[in-house]
């Protein structure tokens, strides 16, 4: 049986696990499998828990495919809510991955996407994947940026929405930043803020995880990954600059949870289900 789904023009994120070759070469296979299971189990748990309070997550039209060091996440429709769901999932994925020693680099693009399903395989086809992959590959840090087409699409969707809460959420997740590239140029782009993973508390203030700076370097050297390579050191330096830029004002210091507290809360929730 062959089933073909054509989604039209939708938003697609392509993420690459940095240091994956060293991760595989310097650790037993079972160890790497355990890391993946732990990280993506925690991501799923956070988003499942969030869906109880965040109305735009309730209707889940998101899917993800993970093959080795490549992660493709996409929505099956192009609406403001679907883009918000995708951004939240990407932010959560990047945050949990980096505190577990898996720094990611990615991009989000909009374009055609189709899925072909047979009894034994799933194939994703579309220029949206190519655009996201090409943009991901230009960057020289751990981060995720939006293609200009995605930003233009968001502007149109926001104009139709007129909801200040939607705009506030996007301002929280997306930050305009001069992104470092492999050709040594820097281009202004909207980037996912992976340094925080917060939600409103009972007083309406944002509360949750704020990654301590020490976890940035730790992510690059965790799991027996060497950082003596000049290229890796440059990527690390550029990633730390992004953290410095976003957290210089200490805006969330009074409301932050430590990584240990946050992960303990996630694990407790998982074990209670």
Task: Record keyword descriptors for this entry.
alpha+beta; 3-stranded mixed β-sheet; 9 helices; globular
Notes on the protein architecture:
- The chain has one domain: Alpha-Beta Plaits (2-Layer Sandwich), CATH 3.30.70.1230.
- The chain has 9 helices and 11 strands.
- Helix content is 44%, strand content 27%.
- A hairpin with a 5-residue loop joins strand 7 and strand 8.
- With 273 residues, the protein is α+β, with helices and mostly antiparallel strands.
- The mean pLDDT is 85.
- The strands form 3 sheets. Strands 1, 2, 3, 4, 5 and 6 form a 6-stranded mixed sheet that branches.
- The two termini are 36 Å apart.
- It is globular, with a radius of gyration of 18 Å.
- Helix 3 packs parallel to helix 6.
Could you give a quick summary of the protein structure above?
The protein has nine helices and eleven strands.
Strand content: 25-35%
CATH architecture: 2-Layer Sandwich
CATH superfamily: Nucleotide cyclase, GGDEF domain
Give a short account of the largest sheet. Answer: 6 strands, mixed
Distance between the termini: 36 Å
Radius of gyration over all CA atoms, rounded:
18 Å
Q: What do the pLDDT scores average to? A: 85
> How many strands?
11
Q: Count the domains.
A: 1
The CATH topology annotation reads as Alpha-Beta Plaits
- Give the class from helix and strand content and strand pairing: alpha+beta
Number of helices: 9
Q: CATH class, anyone?
A: Alpha Beta
